[in-house]
């Protein structure tokens, strides 16, 4: 059953994502077309025209909205941002300065970023970075004879005492004890 223009208008004013892909709406005065879920300023009803396809919107010489990107099959700006953030953490977890610089360039407030990250990955950004640091330290302890002090620094911990405390809390063993369980040259400090 086809939707009425009033049903479509209701979906637009409520930014209803369940109608995305079902129809599109254009605003004659701006020359832009959007998804029903678009959070842009609500247009005047008299200026709105509805389309069943993107091709129809283009035929009316409208361009896609830069905010909701109706021209893309899937538009997930927050998920894309979080995937970029995860890549930054995976790359720079051991360089705190570079990590902070790269995350800041994402252009999201710290509180909002923490909320988004926790929702997506079930841990805070700091917890994720520390998890990566411990994993790197475990790998180095098990596979190298690098000193524990160097491992702490290579893994991104600011000090040996912080490294020892955090490692023992996460792994249940001190770095030296962990190294011994891995049957490596664990006698170095």
From TrEMBL:
Its cofactor is Zn(2+). Pfam families: Ada_Zn_binding, HTH_18. One of its GO terms (biological process) is DNA repair. This is AraC family transcriptional regulator. Transmembrane segments: none annotated. One of its GO terms (molecular function) is sequence-specific DNA binding. It comes from Anaerosporomusa subterranea. The keyword Methyltransferase applies. The keyword rRNA-binding does not apply. Residues 83-181 form the HTH araC/xylS-type domain. Keywords: Activator, DNA damage, DNA repair, DNA-binding, Metal-binding, Methyltransferase, Transcription, Transcription regulation, Transferase, Zinc. InterPro entries: Ada-like_dom_sf, Ada_DNA_repair_Zn-bd, Homeodomain-like_sf, HTH_AraC, HTH_AraC-typ_CS, Me-P-triester_DNA_alkyl-Trfase, Tscrpt_reg_AraC-type_HTH. It comes from the Bacteria.
């Amino acid at each position: 059953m086809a939707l009425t223009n009033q049903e479509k208008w209701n979906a637009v004013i409520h930014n209803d994502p369940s109608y995305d892909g079902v129809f599109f709406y254009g605003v004659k005065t701006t020359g832009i077309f959007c998804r029903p879920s678009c959070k842009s300023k609500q247009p005047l009803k008299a200026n709105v025209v509805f389309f069943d396809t993107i091709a129809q919107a283009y035929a009316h010489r409208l361009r896609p909205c830069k905010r909701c990107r109706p021209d893309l099959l899937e538009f997930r700006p927050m998920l894309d941002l979080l995937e970029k953030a995860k890549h930054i953490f995976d790359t720079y977890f051991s360089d705190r300065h570079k990590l902070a610089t790269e995350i800041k360039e994402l252009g999201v407030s710290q509180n909002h970023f923490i909320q988004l990250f926790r929702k997506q990955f079930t841990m805070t950004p700091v917890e994720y970075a520390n998890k990566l640091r411990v994993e790197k330290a475990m790998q180095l302890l098990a596979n190298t004879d690098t000193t524990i002090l160097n491992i702490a620094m290579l893994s991104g911990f600011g000090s040996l005492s912080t490294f020892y405390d955090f490692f023992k809390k996460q792994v249940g063993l001190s770095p030296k004890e962990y190294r011994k369980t891995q049957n490596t040259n664990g006698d170095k400090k």
